[in-house]
């Protein structure tokens, strides 16, 4: 036997051992990356939470010098900041005059507006407008009808109403989810009970005609407490197409139990909720807030509190 043979065998054993270590290391690395890929795939397949919608209804009070300290010029930036701060995705506005909408868009340039003035179907009179985030929604269709015996007649008062009243609705597509839904906004009459009752009937009839089986959100100043016939018609459970009050549905509620305060002049015991966010269809409400805000100098957001609800479609 050659004296070099043991050295050669030892060398061969060491080389073989190194090869095994190298192969084992490579296999472990491959195994690690495979596990990482599987975990990543499982995480991507996991159910992600649906994007939330922050919905607001806000009677901003029409611009009149009679409001003195609380006239629009003193409130417009405050009102716009409220919408922005609470990150409202879509807002039903009541009593908005054309220049007030322009003011809000000046402070909130990321929002589009739907609606017409109730006097001429163009820009005269108060709007029941819809403001929406342009980066979040596409508008698929939109229309306004009048709350009267002839909904297509422009500038007409219905029944015993003191004022012309309208509903503006839009069909929106959420760019985040691809889902579409309807949104309707209105302002019922403050005097005529017959007008409020018949407006509810007409609204339900129109929703059945327009919305069909799609999800719908309805906002507004209904000038009615929850016990009023107008609200009972909207929420009548014997009607399979009835609306649901998000105040009742939300597990988390915040703020006062009233929405109208007349710039703080209405006594507390007489304050009631007359501003609502209703839903129907595959929509869940997670929280509901009534926002009561006033500056140190006595300037209010409006004579109504904005109402905010977080929804998931």
How does the SSE layout of this entry go?
Elements: H1 5-45, E1 52-59, H2 72-85, E2 90-94, H3 98-107, E3 111-114, E4 130-133, E5 137-146, E6 166-174, E7 180-187, H4 193-210, E8 216-221, H5 229-234, E9 244-245, H6 246-249, E10 252-254, E11 275-280, E12 284-290, E13 307-312
Parallel strand pairs: 1-2, 7-8, 10-12
Antiparallel strand pairs: 1-13, 2-4, 3-4, 5-6, 6-7, 8-11, 9-11, 12-13
Helix pairs in contact: 2-3
Structure write-up:
The chain is an alpha+beta fold and 313 residues long. The protein has two domains: 1-48; 52-312, Endonuclease/exonuclease/phosphatase (Deoxyribonuclease I, Chain A, 4-Layer Sandwich). It has six helices and 13 strands. The strands form two sheets. A seven-stranded mixed beta sheet has the order 3-4-2-1-13-12-10. A six-stranded mixed beta sheet has the order 5-6-7-8-11-9.
Can you summarize this structure?
This protein has about 325 residues and is of the alpha+beta class.
CATH topology of the largest domain: Deoxyribonuclease I, Chain A
Task: State the strand order across the main sheet.
Answer: 3-4-2-1-13-12-10
Distance between the termini: 85 Å
Outline type: globular
Low-confidence stretches: none
The overall pLDDT average reads 91
Please count the helical segments: 6
Q: Report the strand count.
A: 13
- The helix/strand series, from N terminus to C terminus, equals HEHEHEEEEEHEHEHEEEE
Radius of gyration computed on alpha carbons: 30 Å
Q: Report strand %.
A: 15-25%
> Major sheet, described briefly?
7 strands, mixed
The CATH superfamily of the largest domain is known as Endonuclease/exonuclease/phosphatase
Helix content: 25-40%
Q: What is the C-level CATH assignment of the largest domain?
A: Alpha Beta
Estimated structural class: alpha+beta
Name given to the CATH architecture of the largest domain: 4-Layer Sandwich
């Amino acid at each position: 036997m050659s004296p070099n043979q043991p050295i050669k065998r030892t060398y061969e054993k060491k080389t073989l051992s190194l090869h095994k270590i190298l192969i084992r290391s490579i296999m472990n690395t491959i195994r690690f990356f495979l596990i990482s890929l599987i975990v990543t795939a499982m995480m991507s397949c996991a159910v992600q939470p649906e994007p939330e919608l922050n919905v607001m209804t806000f009677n901003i009070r029409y611009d009149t010098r009679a409001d003195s300290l609380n006239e629009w010029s003193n409130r417009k930036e405050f009102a716009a900041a409220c919408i922005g701060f609470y990150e409202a995705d879509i807002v039903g506005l009541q009593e908005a005059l054309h220049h007030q909408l322009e003011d809000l868009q000046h402070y909130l340039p990321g929002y589009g507006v739907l609606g017409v003035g109730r006097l001429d179907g163009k820009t005269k009179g108060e709007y029941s407008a819809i403001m929406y985030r342009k980066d979040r929604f596409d508008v698929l269709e939109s229309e306004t009808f009048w709350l009267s015996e002839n909904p297509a007649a422009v500038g007409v008062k219905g029944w015993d109403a003191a004022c012309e009243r309208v509903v503006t609705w839009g069909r929106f597509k959420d760019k985040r989810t691809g889902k579409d839904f309807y949104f309707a906004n209105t302002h019922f009459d403050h005097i005529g009970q017959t007008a409020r009752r018949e407006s509810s009937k007409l609204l339900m009839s129109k929703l059945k005609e327009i919305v069909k089986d799609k999800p719908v959100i309805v906002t507004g100043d209904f000038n009615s407490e929850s016990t009023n016939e107008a609200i009972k018609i909207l929420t009548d459970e014997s009607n399979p197409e009835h609306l649901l009050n998000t105040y009742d549905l939300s597990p988390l509620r915040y703020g006062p139990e009233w929405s109208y305060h007349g710039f703080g002049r209405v006594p507390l015991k007489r304050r009631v909720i007359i501003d609502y966010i209703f839903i129907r269809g595959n929509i869940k409400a997670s929280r509901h807030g009534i926002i009561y805000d006033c500056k140190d100098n006595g300037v209010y957001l409006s004579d109504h509190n904005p109402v905010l609800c977080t929804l998931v479609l």
